[in-house]
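This part of the workshop introduces the protein records we will be handling. A record pairs a protein's sequence with a compact description of its fold. Comparing a sequence with its tokens is the quickest way to learn the format. To make this concrete, we reproduce a full record directly below:
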Amino acid sequence: MSDLFLTGITNLSTNQGPGVTDAVVAVESGVVTYAGPAADAPSQTGERIDCGQRAVIPGFVDSHTHLVFAGDRSDEFARRLAGESYAEIAASGGGILSTVRDTRAASEQELYDSAAARVWRMIRAGTTTVEIKSGYGLDTETELRLLTVARRIGDELPITVKTTFLGAHSVPAEFRSDRSGYIDLLIEEMLPAVAGLAEYCDVFVEEGAFDVDEARRIFDRASALGLGARVHAEQLGHHGGAMLAAEIGAVSADHLDHVTDEDAVALAAAGVVAVLVPGASYTLRGPQAPGPLLSRAGCTLALATDCNPGTSYFESMGPVISLAVVEMGLTVDQAIAAATLGGATALGMPDRGRIGSGAVADLVVLDAPSPAHIPYRPATNLVWKTIKKGDVVGSW
């Protein structure tokens, strides 16, 4: 980590107050020491970068992904376009279980190589922190392999990784006639095995996946092992996941396409972050989560890619921000904050997602004069430089 001095910033978004024009950011040993008007900036040694009247924002914090997997489900995309539903495809052996078959057959190195390629594309698009879920193994051996790969990515690539165990993603084919047996396996074997590799436990609360009572049992065991809770909630219908997240004090409730006013109030009161994934709603041609309603209720909003091979193959936060603005109804400022500070809050990282004294220097320099260009130009990667802990890790 070297000292860094960014000058010539036309618009600095700090997430700590109004944007600053004609700004400077100073970094020492990977930490921001000054962010504000150039007229008040301290003298600084070290590498100097003239941003050339470009905008600077915090690095994106992608707080919901499934990016370690094998296989291809482009055929399902075509089937959905032809009119088949997500549930119909899953019932015919597709969906999550299709990816499970391919992922179980892949080696750790094969999984790492494909995931690392995705992560480098994320870094080039400005992501500096990412949450990675397991959930495409649905057996102890493969779930451990997925979490090991996720940890390797954080150790070997210039990105911070938070890991989540999602063994309760679906009931695997070999347990279709013994749901309770699979839940027992999750509680008695899988959770203790992965507790050293995962920081959170997630459960997909949905018809055809897991109900509220089953999820509560799984979360009780996860809590006893020291894992925080995240909940896939109210994605395809309304099945009680949001209220469960509020009840157990989950860190986040994710998706929320079918959340109600009552759910939103409960989530806000419990301090549960609402992680919204508009790419999945777009791909599935479903309703977008009511982001403005959740915000009015007092929820902290986060935006994430939900990068996965079946329902949201988004690797870049830019198009996600555009969908949140155009289809969900968030303002540009809300969407940028949700993709940065909101994601950091969802991952329990108060030193990320903002640009101010004491924050980790995870920064993005945009090849544009304002962050509004991100949703305005959704098909263009506007990242000029990605900076991780004060080091330039990507420059284009």
Q: What stands out?
A: The first strand starts at residue 4 and ends at 12.
